[in-house]
Amino acid sequence: MSRHPSLPRYLKAPVGASTARVLASALATAALLTTAACSGDGEGGGSGSGASDVAASPLAAQTPTSSPATSPASSPATSAPSRLTEAGARSALITEEDIEDHWNQVKDASKWHDTLLIGKVDVADFLTAKADAADCQKFLDALYSDQLLGKPSGVSALRGFEQGDSRLLYQVASYDSGQLNSSLAWLKTLPVKCDRFTVTDSKGAKRTVEVTEGSVPAVGDARQDLRVVVQGDTNGEATTLTLDVAVVRVGEDAITVTAGGLDGDEQQSTDQAVTKGTQRLKDVLSGKTPAAGPAHSG
Predict the structure, then answer these.
(1) In which element (H, E) is residue 207 found?
(2) What pairs with residue 213 in β-bridges?
(3) Are 269 and 168 spatial neighbours (Cβ–Cβ below 8 Å)?
(4) What residue spans of the chain are helical by DSSP H?
(5) Which of 95, 222, 244, 253 could link 249 by a cystine bridge, Cβ 3.0 to 4.6 Å?
(6) pLDDT at 294
(7) Backbone angles phi, psi at 37, to 5 degrees
């Protein structure tokens, strides 16, 4: 809080009633100056605490701030998150440096579709709950088309990485809030509804699918992790496809990670992608540039 301004020199000499009136007016002016100084300190005083080490960026569309005439009492305690823009969605995507091992970014990841996920669910496996068969079919179709949360209502971006026979697909998108909550609630039911079932492909070959609940780092506003194991034959050889599927909601936006392949699960890389990716999305939504990930060792 600022000091009282020094009183004018002419107030120091004792004089009569007219001088007293001047004194009262000057004291009132000094009080107003002091109040204004205190108010100015209060608005800017918190900027030094909790400051991020991430530089500010215009990638996200900023929420309009209140005008200087707005009363402090009517101002919100914290500003609302920004809306995700196309540039922001791209900036929120993870990079090779955000995940360990030796993942390499690839082009045209949007064309990835694993044919082992194509097939018609055998309804006979669901003796007591035929509706569960429809949910399992919906899940397989959504996993194949990379739209586990449905079609985004806003911007979206994706990036793919390869390592041996494994792939990692990372997506960032905006959704309707109700749709997002409903999709997450639906994903949570799948380990019970679709714990084990059979699908038949167009050639009549059968595959066994198992869906179990995984564990994802406690980040974001809500999250769900599933492990999907598909067993069947490819070109006459026994094949097992293992996928880790993780979804994290941040406000009305979400990140989706699908990682794995014929080499087995990629839970560690999935966890890293979720952790780093959630922070990147939060940074973008707050108008900051995401920090660069650590360089690969070895």
Answers:
(1) strand 206-213
(2) 226
(3) yes
(4) 17-44, 86-91, 130-145, 177-193, 267-285
(5) 222
(6) 55
(7) -65, -40
Distance CA 240, CA 230 (A): 6
Read off the tokens for 208: 């066994």
CA angle at 7 for the pair 3 and 12, rounded to the nearest 5°:
140
Query: CB–CB of 32/4 below 8 Å?
Result: no
For the record, the structure tokens of 270 come out as 């999935």
Tell me how far apart the alpha carbons of residues 84 and 283 are, in angstroms, rounded to a whole number: 11
Alpha-carbon gap, residue 272 to 163, rounded angstroms: 15
Q: Give residue 199's identity as a one-letter amino acid code.
A: V
Residues 197 and 220: their CA atoms lie apart, in Å, by 31
pLDDT tens digits, one per residue of 55-64: 323 333 333 3
**Helix, strand, coil percentages, rounded to 5, for the chain:** 35, 25, 40
Q: How far apart are CA 149 and CA 147, in angstroms?
A: 5
Confidence at residue 261, expressed as pLDDT on a 0 to 100 scale: 93
Contact between residue 262 and residue 64 where contact means Cβ atoms under 8 Å apart: no
Listing DSSP states for 102-131 in one string gives T-EEES-GGG---GGG--EE-GGG-SS-HH
The model carries a pTM of 0.70
| d(C-alpha 53, C-alpha 57), whole Å | 12
Provide the β-strand partners of residue 166: 163, 261
Structure tokens at 245: 């599927």
Instruction: Work out the end-to-end distance of the chain between its first and last CA atoms, rounded to an integer number of angstroms.
Output: 54
